[in-house]
Amino acid sequence: MMIVVVARDVGIQKFISSVLETVETGVVMLSALGELPEVLKTVPVNGILIDLITSTRSSLQEKQATNDLIQFYPSSRFKFVDNEVRMLGHGVTLEQFVSDCRLVEPRTIRKSERKIRYIALLLSANGDFAFSEKTVTINVSEEGCFVFTEIGRAHV
User: What letter would DSSP give residue 35?
Assistant: First the structure.
């Protein structure tokens, strides 16, 4: 289990790291939102915690670059007050957040950008194309493409 924590303050990082380690949770500490995309490409994580002050003081560019990515994971913002982590919204405690993260399979984000491309192609289960279907891609990337078919949708 791995959670990414974004907090500029080293003291907050150490406190949260020690709390998460007591519940057998791995931690990746970041000091800025701008570091998040690269980490999510390489480290499979279960959730993201973001310090409210760090988030507020982040640049507009950092916020825009990370906002969509954060939606793919359980995530929460927190405040550190009086040596206590206070989770914001939904009345969730840190322990409940960790419990929710355990239910999620750790994953990385796509390493390359998907580009919208409509490419006609024939889709067949074998090389002789005896039974094939005319299809079209919706988008493509270095790792694959999204193919729309009459039967349904397929990730290739």
Answer: G
